[in-house]
Design brief:
Blueprint: H1 5-13, H2 18-25, H3 29-43, H4 59-80, H5 86-97, H6 105-118, H7 121-132, E1 138-141, E2 157-161, E3 166-170, E4 178-179, E5 190-199, E6 202-212, E7 225-229, E8 242-246, E9 249-252, E10 262-263, E11 269-270, H8 280-310, H9 329-364, H10 371-399, H11 401-405, H12 411-420, H13 428-447, H14 474-501, H15 506-512, H16 514-538, H17 543-563, H18 574-591, H19 595-600, H20 606-609, H21 620-629, H22 640-654
Parallel strand pairs: 1-5, 2-5
Antiparallel strand pairs: 2-3, 3-9, 4-8, 5-6, 7-8, 10-11
The protein binds ligand LYGD5NNO and flavin-adenine dinucleotide.
Length: 655
């Protein structure tokens, strides 16, 4: 069937090449090209297609479907991608497995990275190759039923038995059961388990252990292990998040991951070079989250923007033809700032992935000085991007009206998966407060006359306000954001200090200032996102692409500043606020002809999108009808439940 002419016209009105834009989004022409090649190659392999729409499947069917595809994938793996390239691998996973989770998700995102960061060279020799070849399937078991956030209160123990040189793992209470780890329930046969290291009755706190859970031949749980699935979730139902308990389960001493902390055979403990070095797997995932969430948001926007360009409802001036809903200013205001955020998140994502890779090298060379900075940055970023992604996806759903609420749009699934990110890898409020600790310390340095020692990301906290001339462009908006973040950070810190100086304990003062502190963290992070966006656009060579991204940046800076209006009242007059508001409306109009091309540029395939509304060809209505007819409820005209219950009820009522 040919493309819907409304979309053809939209594509014709674009002022740039989508391939050139994709090269900017994905960091290089080479990777953008590789993505397309991988997508193209997969589309020719029929076994990778869903056997029927995932949304009609039960959990068991979804998991089985994911396993089927993984088995097929293992035959093609080496021919489809450069296996040493993590980004290619993740693209392949996204295309084939989608976003609902699968048995290898945690293997790739946490198990292998934990081995790389935490296992000694000998341990890597033993396990890493096996994991990379997928001879074993691993997961990351840290969270317990009773504790996820407060890692110091985890209850699982690994007690060193000096006589046998083994660790004995135990789950002493119900609340100590590991609870949530992805792929633990039914798929993984090995796990990195975080347990309290106990030697001669001294608790050294949480440490990572490599633990075999299931027999490698029969896949049956090993004696001493209780393991299973935790049941259906809001989303991610293609994944078997699990529970795990230990009863006097013994593992060799060599199974404690010993790159950094060590236990010798006589039971001596060797400290790591940094107390939180064992948390690196979390930092790794957090450093990926801006990118992953940017892509979730992008997916919802591809659907909503394409659909809005073919959906006609109501009239503007021309009463002879209904208007595309994308032409309404309210629709543009609902969608375009989110397009800008999706771009901004992806740009930040590439930056934080690069920073993590550098940190990993530094730490392997004994330099842990960058850990606190990256922890603070990624803590704030994961919190802000997950929250704003959730907001943006929900707006995208509403922008699709009634059909957005149907699973045919697939937006609800994207939403459910994306907002999981507000919780996993550290609950958002908790992580904002981690960043706040860093910000408060920065203010204390300024108060102690050490402004010069501040890192580049917080140097603005020591600056004075300057005059703002909004006609000068994005950098002036950045100054507005700096003002807001600086003011709020000082205000929150001073509140905390005042409470503490009044005699309150440090903890209670912190608690009573915590809402204000989280606000400071959000503003600081949004400033970082904006400045990364500005820097990125500044570095673009292709002038057509750059021109459109400047337009998109204008949407971003004006929208973001309007959104934080309450924090800039002392800086901007109401006339200046009106000016910004009007600039935003103008920016929405400017970007309108490029809206479809901007979302096309994400190059997210129909196969991955799984959305009837977001189809690239825009043939929504005929496919919506086809999709509804394929619903299992429509297999028969009369359901057994009607025959069994409703008919007798109606018959009875007639009497
Ligand atoms: C193949 C896949 C295909 C596609 C992928 C696509 C998309 C991806 C999609 C889905 C991913 C799927 C599933 C998600 C998997 C989820 C996994 C998990 O959730 S794992 C569990 C995560 N758990 C957490 O995040 C727990 C949160 N809690 C903590 O991190 C800590 O407890 C907390 C930091 C809150 C406090 O720690 P605690 O030990 O109590 O600290 P303490 O108060 O003693 O000290 C604080 C002190 O330490 C500093 N610090 C803390 N953490 C770090 C760190 N990581 N690095 C450096 N420093 C750290 C902190 O700043 C503070 O310092 P100061 O005292 O202020 O100096
Ligand atoms: C989809 C998904 C996948 C997951 N995958 C894994 C996995 O693979 N492996 C794994 O180990 N875990 C996994 N988890 C668990 C996840 O990491 C935890 O649920 C998460 O870290 C939050 O911890 P919690 O559940 O204990 O929340 P809680 O800490 O109980 O949060 C409840 C409330 O208390 C508040 N709160 C808690 N502490 C503080 C504080 N100090 N200050 C202020 N407020 C506070 C929070 O902000 C929140 O509002 C997964 C979770 C989900 C949803």
């Amino acid at each position: 069937m040919s493309e819907n002419p409304d979309l053809t016209n939209e594509r014709a009105s674009g002022t740039f090449e989508t391939n050139a834009m994709a090269a900017v989004i994905y960091g290089s022409e080479k990777f953008a090209q590789r993505r397309r090649e991988i997508t193209e190659a997969i589309s020719k392999i029929p076994e990778f297609q869903d056997s029927h729409p995932l949304v009609f499947m039960s959990r068991e069917e979804k998991i089985s479907e994911a396993c089927r595809k993984l088995a097929v994938l293992s035959n093609y793996w080496n021919s489809l991608i450069d296996t040493s390239d993590e980004e290619e691998a993740l693209h392949l996973y996204r295309e084939v497995l989608g976003l609902e989770g699968h048995p290898l998700a945690l293997h790739e995102t946490m198990f292998i990275p934990s081995l790389i960061a935490q296992a000694s060279d000998e341990q890597q020799e033993k396990w890493l190759g096996r994991a990379q070849r997928r001879e074993i399937i691993g997961c990351y078991a840290q969270t317990e039923m009773g504790h996820g956030t407060n890692l110091r209160a985890l209850e699982t123990t690994a007690t060193f038995d000096i006589s046998t040189r083994e660790f004995i793992l135990n789950s002493p209470t119900i609340t100590s059961l590991k609870w949530w780890p992805g792929a633990l329930g039914k798929s993984a046969n090995w796990s990195i388990v975080i347990a309290n290291l106990i030697i001669k009755e001294h608790n050294y706190g949480p440490h990572p252990f490599m633990v075999q859970l299931r027999d490698e031949k029969s896949h049956e749980p090993l004696p001493g292990i209780t393991v299973g699935d935790i049941g259906p979730k809001m989303a991610f139902n293609g994944a078997d998040n699990g529970f795990l308990g230990f009863k006097n389960y013994r593992i060799p001493r060599e199974n404690m991951l010993m790159r950094h902390s060590k236990v010798t055979s006589d039971g001596s403990y060797i400290k790591p070079p940094h107390a939180k070095i064992g948390y690196s797997s979390m930092v790794k995932v957090r450093s990926r989250m801006a990118m992953d969430q940017g892509l979730f948001l992008a997916s919802a926007l591809v659907i909503a923007v394409r659909y809005s360009a073919v959906r006609r409802q109501g009239y503007l001036e021309d009463k002879s033809r209904e208007v595309k809903v994308l032409d309404y200013q309210t629709q543009q205001h609902r969608l375009f700032p989110s397009i800008a955020r999706a771009y901004a998140f992806i740009f930040c994502g590439f930056e934080t992935i690069r920073l993590y890779d550098q940190l990993l090298i530094d730490v392997q060379n004994g330099n842990t000085s960058g850990m606190a900075d990256l922890h603070a940055l990624t803590s704030g970023l994961k919190s802000v991007v997950t929250y704003q992604t959730g907001e943006g996806i929900e707006q995208a759903r509403m922008a699709c009206g009634g059909h957005g609420y149907s699973m045919a749009s697939y937006i609800s699934e994207i939403y459910g998966v994306a907002i999981g990110g507000c919780t996993y890898e550290g609950e958002n409020m908790v992580m904002l407060l981690q960043l706040a600790r860093y910000l408060v310390k920065s203010i204390e340095m300024i108060q102690n006359g050490k402004s010069r020692e501040l890192g580049p990301m917080v140097a603005y906290l020591a600056e004075n306000e300057s005059e703002i001339d909004l006609n000068l462009g994005p950098n002036e908006y950045l100054k507005v954001f700096e003002y807001a973040a600086r003011n709020q950070t000082w205000r929150a810190t001073e509140k905390f200090q005042k409470l503490r100086n009044s005699g309150m304990s440090n903890e209670e003062a912190w608690n009573q200032a915590s809402v204000e502190l989280t606000r400071a963290s959000r503003l600081h992070t949004r400033l970082y996102i904006m400045s990364t966006f500005i820097n990125h656009v500044g570095s673009i060579v292709d002038q057509k692409v750059k021109g459109v991204l400047i337009d998109l940046l204008n949407v971003h800076v004006t929208y973001e500043v309007m959104d934080i209006g309450i924090y800039v009242q002392g800086l901007l007059s109401s006339n200046q606020m009106d000016l910004i508001r009007n600039q935003l409306y103008v920016s929405l109009e400017t970007i309108r002809p490029n809206a479809v091309s901007l979302v096309d540029s994400f190059q997210i395939s129909d196969m991955q999108l799984r959305s009837v509304l977001g189809r690239r060809d825009g043939n929504v209505y005929e496919n919506l009808f086809k999709w509804a007819k394929s619903s299992p409820l429509n297999k028969t005209d009369v359901l057994p439940s009607v025959t069994q219950y409703l008919k007798p009820m109606m018959e009875k009522s007639k009497l």
